[in-house]
Each structure stands twice: as structure tokens, then as C-alpha cells.
Please model this.
Amino acid sequence: MGIKDDAVEVRAQGWRTLAALHGLIEAELERSLQAVAQLSVVEYTVLDALSRQDGWHMRMQQLARATALSASATTRLVTRLEDRGLLTRILCADDRRGIYTELTPKGVDLLEEARPSHDAALERALAGAHEVPELAPLVDALPRLHARV
Amino acid sequence: MGIKDDAVEVRAQGWRTLAALHGLIEAELERSLQAVAQLSVVEYTVLDALSRQDGWHMRMQQLARATALSASATTRLVTRLEDRGLLTRILCADDRRGIYTELTPKGVDLLEEARPSHDAALERALAGAHEVPELAPLVDALPRLHARV
DNA sequence: GCGGTATAGTTGCTTGTGCAACAATAAATA
DNA sequence: TATTTATTGTTGCACAAGCAACTATACCGC
Model:
């Protein structure tokens, strides 16, 4: 087994670890968000992304990228949230193909209501993952990516 | 903003980064595996997990954990692969509730055929992700988790 | 051994997702 | 300006996923 093969195997193992941790966290968030706000993880992701956006509006395609979803899934996701009154579609004046989505006050409220639960669930999930030997190193590495210090 | 709030935000950002990278990689693998072997990422994950198992057999529940899938999804996933002749169900002698799944020679062949393409796609995805500033640190951290040196 | 509880896996049903085809608008080219 | 080409978002369709309910087997206390 040469150096090159090692690199391949190391990448594969890294990916498996990443996928496993992702799965754990997503499951925990899903349970938590569903319980507290009847939101799925992607739905929360949309609301959160919009809330961290200047003016609280984003275009469909930005949303698709932010959620790693297809265009069609994004359309229906936005429709779903719009039907619940959590955001609104706003036609784009300068580019009439484009559509902005914007949080409604109700959307902001629900997000603020869900956020503490989300954050707690994330913390729980990471703590739980840290107990799994294969996942612990990644859990430790994660906060170092963006730490201020 | 206190220290505690910072920790929450750091975790959230770490999670967003993890999810984004996961999405990119999964999409790239999906395309690649679909093209070369008509396999989805989870399907490949099952075959790969079985191949790295002594005796090439696993129980349904192990598989469910390895793929981060529900029990019912696992049942149908295994059924799908069984219908294609890539693995077989084997009744467990000592625990008659349990069911082992085992790769068939055909399954091994397909896996070996798909693996190079999978590994290349993974490498491409990581290289691509490395170009995205927010993702680069995580991409760099990944191979260090399990590196031999 | 016998009833109650826990565990393993499967099935019905509903829902979210991706792909491909589409409509509408913008941008490029002649 | 007219025509092609690219981009943005939406819809029809097929399929995979989760939840809850179910069957079958194992385990535990009596």
C-alpha cells in the first residue's frame, strides 16, 4: 500500500466520520425543532439564513445554495413556509424573473422561539457525539474552525 | 455578548460549515455513483460497509446505524439491493429475529467497479470545497483526524 | 413453564426530494 | 431591432424517507 492509497483511505474515512456526525446532529435537531416549532431542519435553516441576511431577504437561488437543496425543493419549501405565514414572496423589481423571500414578523417570532431549543439540541448532539471515539476528534476540531481567539 | 453566547454561535457556525461541506460532497458522490453504477450514496455506503466487515455480513440494525437511516428505510434499501442481486438476506440461526445481509459476488464486483470513481469524486469534491473560504479550514482538518503520521 | 416486556424486522401511509420539461424574463449577438 | 441563448423560478412525475402499527422472536420475573 503506497502513499497514494493511504490518502484515498484517509479521505474516505474522513468522509465517513463527517457523514456520521452530520447524521447524528441532524437527527437531534430534527427531533428538537419538530417538538418545539413543527419545523424541519431545512425549514429552520431557511428562517435562520433569512434572519442573518441584511434586510431579511434572499433570492430563491441563494436559498437553494444555503440549504443544499434543488431548485424545485426550494420552491416547495418556500411555499410551505409562506402558507404558514412565516415568510413572504416579493417580486424583484429590477429583475422580474427573480423572487425575494422575506421573513414575516411571525416568522421572526417563531425563529426566536425555536432558536434556544435548537442551540441546546446542537450542544447535546455534539456532547453525545463526543462520547463516540471515532467522532470525538471531529467534534473537537469543529469549534476551532471559527473560534475568535 | 458574553463568553457563553460566543460558544453557541461558534457551534452554530461549525454546524453550518459541516452541513455545507456534507451537502457538497454528497451531491458530487451522488452524480458520480449514479453515472458509473446506478447507485445512490446510501446504497454505496451499504455495499462499502459490508465489504469492510469480517465475513461481509451485518445485521439490519447495524446497517441502519451505519447509514444513519431509519429501520424502515433500511428494510427497503436492502430489498432494493437484494432485488438487484448485490446482496442476500441470511436468517440468523442463533437469534431468529435477526437477519444478516451479505454481499454477493456481483455486489463485490459492482463495488470494486464503483470505488475508483467514488474516490475520485470525493477528491474532486474536497478540492472544490477547498476553494470556498468558509469550507477550507474544515477540509484541511478532515484528513488530520485519522492520519497515520 | 407462563405472562409481560423488550427487541428485530416489515408494511401502509404521507410527505419531501430530485430530475426533466416548462414558462417567463434578461442578456448577447447579428 | 430581431433572434438566439442564458437565467430564474415553477410544475408533473417517480421514488426514497420517516412514523406508526404490526408480527415474530427473545428475555425476564414469577
